[in-house]
Every structure is written in structure tokens, then in C-alpha cells.
TrEMBL record:
This is Aminoglycoside phosphotransferase domain-containing protein. Residues 21-242 form the Aminoglycoside phosphotransferase domain. Signal peptide: none annotated. It holds the Pfam family APH. SUPFAM superfamilies: Protein kinase-like (PK-like). It comes from Poseidonocella sedimentorum. It comes from the Bacteria. InterPro entries: Aminoglycoside_PTrfase (IPR002575), Kinase-like_dom_sf (IPR011009).
Amino acid sequence: MSDTAEMDLLRAAGWGDAEQSPMEGDASTKAFLRLRRGAERAILMTSPADPSVAVNFAHVAGLLRDRGLRPPRILSADLTRGALLIEDFGDRVFARQIANTPALAQPLSDLAIDVLLRLGQHPAPDLAHFDAETAADQAELAATFYADLDAARYAPLRAALKAALEDAPPAEPVLMLRDYHAENIIHLPENPGLARAGLIDFQDAMVAHPAYDLVSFLQDARRDVPPDMVARQIRRFAEGAGMTEAELAHALALFGTARALRILGVFARLARAGGKPKYLALMPRVWGHLERNLAHPALAQVAHEVRALLPRPSPDHLESLRSPCPTP
């Protein structure tokens, strides 16, 4: 989207004269511009390379509102050019609030889990399904970008992972936000109930097992969640979702493994092909999540294949990931 097109959108929405300041982007291709107009604030989100990002964001925002949750209001849109002018929730992201005020860790974590339980109270929407096939396909990013393996060498791990996921404990599928972690939830204490959790970065939403977003929050690539907090939220979620803790632990191990493999691949790709080496520092934590998940008996074959194919994120291996990949 050109600067002229951006200004046309802002002028049409009455924000043409607003003060503008760039915001740090995330691990995607989206760009963000913070706008100030007196006491009012808004954010211009653009994804000109893939306008479907804006379309999906707007659609999922509606699904979340229908479920009594709190996505940003969309103030104006140019969906054909991949641009949205959205409400600015501010900077009180859960991760920062918890780090700065440890007493908030439990109430904010409880709130985050209550949001997921609310999603489980509604039928799954008509979105693509995150099934075993999809999970195994996405996990291949680890083979390609983290370990420089081709599809043939990844095949045994793919088969083992797909088989394990196909045996996941049954549960009604739900709306899955996919990147549900403490930097994508913003504290809005002035609101009542679940509206205190401002939700962002949900344009990649799918339909999935309810354990997926739970493991995204508890196995955060960017921060350590204390074991006692993890145990508390597993108990609360199991009770609220009508699952046994054993069933939930099985599902968390399965989807945590698939997610950790995908994230290792995404972070390696960002470092090698995206010029973002800062993500390499997060890999040891993600690998730790992977190892804990692989300790579950249901993942014995997957664990065998991972250990045979993927190197640990040693300092030498992380350094090697700073160089361009052979398969960009």
C-alpha cells in the first residue's frame, strides 16, 4: 500500500492530520503506525503484500465480538489494499504488566484462561480446520529452516507426528486464535468481565482442539511461566472444559510439540531469510518446551525421530542460523 493510499484512507476517516509514529512490528509482514489526534489514538495496520490479512482480521474480530470478547474496533478499512484503521488498546500488554507487577500474574492468567473457556462455549465457526495433516505440514518448517532437511528426510518425523495427533483425546473443536500469548493480550482494567482482555493478532485463526491456544499461552516462547501457574491453569481449564487433567495433559503435549516445531522453523526462517536474528535468542526456551512435551508416553516415536533429525539449539547451531538458508 502506497503512502498516498494510506493517506487517502486516513483522510477519509478523519485522521489525515493525526500525529504519526511507527510501531515495532511482530513476526509477520504486517506494519503498524500509531496515530494521535488530541486525546484520541488509533493504529493503522497494513499488509499490502497480502491483503487477505486485513480481511481475515476483520472477520475474526466479528466472531470474537459475537462471543462477548474484546477485539479492537475497526474504525475504517480498505480491504482491497490490506489496510485497517483500528482502535488502539495502548501498551498494557499482559507480559509487561506481569513482569512489572508480579501480583497481577494470577488474575491476568486467570482472565486469559477464562477467555479460552468462553471460546469453548460457542460452536466452532466456518474456518479452516487445524487438523493432524495441517499440524504436520506446519511442523515441517523446523526441518526446512532449522535443520536444512528436505521433505524425504522429514517424512519419518512427519508420519510419527501425524499419527500421534490423530490419536488426540476427543474434544469439540473451537475457534483457535493460534498466536495466543501474553504479548497479544492487552489489559483493559476499565472494562468489565472478559472485556478486560483486549485481543490482537488473531488474523490467522482456525478451528482446532481447545488445547492449542491453552498451550500457546502456557508455553510462551517469550517468557517463562512458573510451573505452579501452569498447573493452576491446567486444573482450571480442565474443570471448565469438562476434560480430565490426564486427557488435557495428553492434548497439551501433542499440540505443544507441533507448535514448538513450527515455532523453531518460523524463528529460523525469520533469522535466515527475514533479517531478524533476535528470534534466535528465544529458541532454547522453545526447545525446552519441546523436550518436556516429548516426555509424554504418547509421543515416544515422535521423540525418537526428533532426536535423530533435529540438532539442539547449541551456540554453534544458533550461530549457523544467522547465515542465509539454502532454501529461502
